[in-house]
Design goal:
The chain is built from ten helices and five strands. With 212 residues, it is of the alpha+beta class. It folds into two domains: 140 residues, 2-Layer Sandwich (Beta-Lactamase); 60 residues, Winged helix-like DNA-binding domain superfamily/Winged helix DNA-binding domain (Arc Repressor Mutant, subunit A), CATH 1.10.10.10. It has a five-stranded antiparallel beta sheet with strand order 2-1-5-4-3, with helices on both faces. A hairpin with a 2-residue loop joins β4 and β5.
Length: 212
């Protein structure tokens, strides 16, 4: 991947969001085992913290629909399809001042992009939707094909040892490093793989052929 191309397109998506979105967006690219290789978000840190700490991702119709379908759905459409969602993430978001939103999900060369974006109008305009689709497609094309490139040699060795069942303490002893240093490496590996847990990082490493 040409990192400069990715960064340029990322800037274009953020600029689009600043113009169109009311409260922000989150976009994920190139999903493996349900986890994206890259994430771009402009939501406030307060909302991101609440979303993560409350586990909204499991119940969010935007995420559920986007992972199972391609196309576009507004929050109003999603609310009708998921009337009994608990917690009701869309209602919670609206109570935080986010009036409306949409999910756009698409696949290019068997790689998926999903974006959840807020806006004041009930639906995105046709012009904005086409613009957004073009940006997502180009970002998917620019997104790295090989996640192995995301990890250093130390990172790949660490996740391989975790997959073998070793603990951070055992890895520290084997590598002659401090437990604190190994813990810092763990955090970097999880961040690079956009993995919320160590178990999901291992699963992604297998799926991505970073480890065998």
């Amino acid at each position: 991947m040409n990192e400069s191309n990715w960064q340029q397109l990322k800037g274009e998506l953020i600029a689009f969001g600043n113009r169109v979105s009311s409260h922000g967006f989150t976009a994920g690219f190139d999903f493996i085992a349900g986890v994206p290789a890259r994430v771009i978000t402009t939501f406030s840190q307060d909302w991101l913290d609440e979303y993560q700490s409350s586990g909204y991702v499991i119940y969010d119709p935007v995420v559920i629909w986007g992972a199972q379908h391609e196309g576009v759905q507004s929050w109003n459409q999603l609310a009708r399809q998921f009337p009994n969602a608990t917690p009701n993430v869309i209602s919670i978001a609206r109570a935080r001042g986010m009036k409306n939103g949409s999910v756009v999900s698409m696949t290019v060369n068997r790689r998926r992009a999903i974006i959840g974006i807020t806006h004041d109008a009930a639906e995105l305009s046709t012009e904005n939707l086409w613009h957004l689709r073009g940006l997502l497609a180009n970002l998917l094309i620019a997104c790295p094909c090989d996640r192995e490139e995301l990890l250093t040699v130390k990172g790949k060795r660490y996740i391989s040892q975790i997959a073998q069942g070793l603990t951070d303490q055992e890895i520290a002893s084997r590598e002659g490093r401090s437990v604190r240093g190994v813990a810092a490496l763990r955090e970097r590996v999880m961040e690079k793989l956009s993995a919320p847990t160590l178990a999901s990082a291992v699963l992604m490493a297998y799926k991505s052929r970073i480890i065998d």
